[in-house]
Amino acid sequence: MPFFENTRKPEGFGGKIMLAMMNSGHSAMAQWGLAHIPLAKDATVLDIGCGGGANIRKMLALCPQGHVSGVDYSLVSVEKSRQVNRKAIADGRCDIVEGSALSLPFSGERFDMVTAFETVYFWPEIETCFGEAYRVLAPGGCFMICNESNGETSKDDKWVEMIGGMTIYTGDQLRTFLANAGFTDIHMDKNAKGWLCVTARKK
Ligand SMILES: C[S@@+](CC[C@H](N)C(=O)[O-])C[C@H]1O[C@@H](n2cnc3c(N)ncnc32)[C@H](O)[C@@H]1O
Fold first, then answer.
1. How many domains does the chain have?
2. Is residue 31 part of a domain?
3. Which residues have C-beta within 8 Å of that of residue 114, sequence separation ≥ 6?
4. Residue 18 placed within a domain
5. Which domain holds residue 138?
6. Phi, psi (degrees; rounded to nearest 5) at 95
7. CA 147 to each of CA 13, 88, 124, 150, 201: distance values in angstroms, whole numbers, following the listed order
8. pLDDT in tens, 84-103
């Protein structure tokens, strides 16, 4: 499998290397994205497409009395996330499960916050996936999408050519999908690097 395919679904040894790279390479963007959302100290959070689990670790630090769950359809990602967050898992503050954004393995209305860092590019039937994020959020809960690529420049075309099944969405496209899935109060921010952060609320 070509190495960069591991961004869509990490597998095997190449997947392990990619996860280590993403845990450090996405750190600044995740930090920027997290500054957009108010995380209560006792928040319950779900990170979809959690990859190597570094963002789960960041959120556990932001909500010391809270609980952070992670879900990813790659077993290699699930294993790495569990390893990175093993202390919080042992303390009962974190759980990581294998599953797809298309059919989240969680009951409805149970999270205050759902996050998706660098992953919606790969989700099939994106409005159905956003509907799943909506379903698991408690009323008033927030969904945050944070992407390094914003779909407005051809400089990112190389990624779409290199990685099968990848679509880079513009903020306006994401806004439409979110509204169609039922979200309201949709806000967007873009920084000088082109990073995109979209937040949306469940009524
Ligand atoms: C580029 S990595 C980003 C990982 C992590 N969120 C980060 O920012 O470092 C994308 C992750 O999303 C996961 N993923 C992609 N599509 C998914 C889907 N439909 N359901 C669950 N996980 C998915 C992949 O397995 C991978 O771990």
1. 1
2. yes
3. 45, 46, 47, 48, 133, 136, 137, 141, 142, 143, 144
4. yes
5. 3-35+46-201
6. -145, 145
7. 25, 26, 17, 7, 18
8. 999 999 999 999 999 999 99
The CATH number of residue 133's host domain is: 3.40.50.150
- Calculate the average pLDDT of the chain: 97
Q: Which residue owns the Cα nearest ligand 1 atom 4?
A: 51
> Is the shortest distance between the CB of 112 and ligand 1 below 6 Å?
no
Q: How far is the CA of 117 from the centre of ligand 1 (A)?
A: 8
Ligand 1: distance of its center to the CA of 66 in Å?
23
What digits encode the pLDDT tens for the residues 47-80?
Answer: 999 999 999 999 999 999 999 999 999 999 999 9
Q: Which atom of ligand 1 is nearest to the CA of 77?
A: 27
**51 C-beta closer than 6 A to ligand 1:** yes
> Is 45 near ligand 1, meaning CB less than 6 Å away?
no
**What is the distance between the alpha carbons of residues 121 and 52, in angstroms, rounded to a whole number?**
17
Residue to probe by mutation, ligand 1, list 72, 81, 96, most atoms within 8 Å of CB: 72
* Minimum-distance ligand 1 atom for the alpha carbon of 124: 19
| Whole-number pLDDT of residue 38 | 87
For residue 40, tell me if it sits in a domain: no
